[in-house]
From TrEMBL:
Entries under InterPro entries matching the protein: Glyas_Bleomycin-R_OHBP_Dase, Glyas_Fos-R_dOase_dom, GlyoxalaseI/FosfomycinResist, VOC_core
Keywords: Lyase, Signal
Keyword Signal applies: yes
Signal peptide extent: 1-24
Protein name, as recorded: Lactoylglutathione lyase
Top-level division of the source organism's lineage: Bacteria
PANTHER family for the chain: GLYOXALASE FAMILY PROTEIN, VOC DOMAIN-CONTAINING PROTEIN
């Protein structure tokens, strides 16, 4: 009898045996969000929204110190104002976003006078990886490196 009641409660809650089995089989963590500390939230928000064309999403704090962006099925980028200064970052540590056309993205960068480099550091150049993916690197207002590529998504 208790098993029958428990089964009924689980079904009412929308939890089926398939749901429980899928949750049990998930072996890897799933990326939820990446948070970066920024010096000027307004400037950084404008960069990610207007240059990278990433959509903002509601954030729960409503304190003027957070901007959240939707960057995947369930993944987000959180900008948090609070950096005491803008610091130098290594290009090897970067975010990466794929775009339909690197060439079209370069046009946008040039229109906004935003410099870019290839992996070797050559200015206003892109490179093509050994797997055929075209890529370039830019920096956001806080100096964080961002790879832009045309990998299929």
């Amino acid at each position: 009898m208790n098993k029958l009641i428990l089964t009924g409660l689980l079904l009412c809650a929308g939890i089926t045996g398939a749901t429980l089995q899928a949750q049990a089989q998930q072996k890897q963590p799933v990326l939820n969000h990446i948070a970066i500390s920024v010096y000027n939230l307004e400037k950084s928000t404008a960069f990610y929204r207007d240059v990278l064309l990433i959509d903002t999403m509601p954030e729960p704090f409503h304190d003027g110190k957070h901007t959240w962006f939707k960057i995947g099925g369930h993944s987000q980028l959180h900008l948090i104002e609070g950096a005491k200064e803008i610091t130098e970052h290594d290009r090897g540590s970067h975010l990466c976003f794929s775009v339909p056309s690197v060439d079209d993205f370069i046009v946008r960068l040039n229109q906004r006078k935003i410099p870019f480099i290839n992996w070797k550091g050559e200015k206003q150049q892109f490179n093509v990886r050994v797997d055929g993916v075209k890529q370039l690197y830019i920096q956001d207002p806080d100096g964080y490196w961002i790879e832009i590529n045309d990998d299929k998504y």
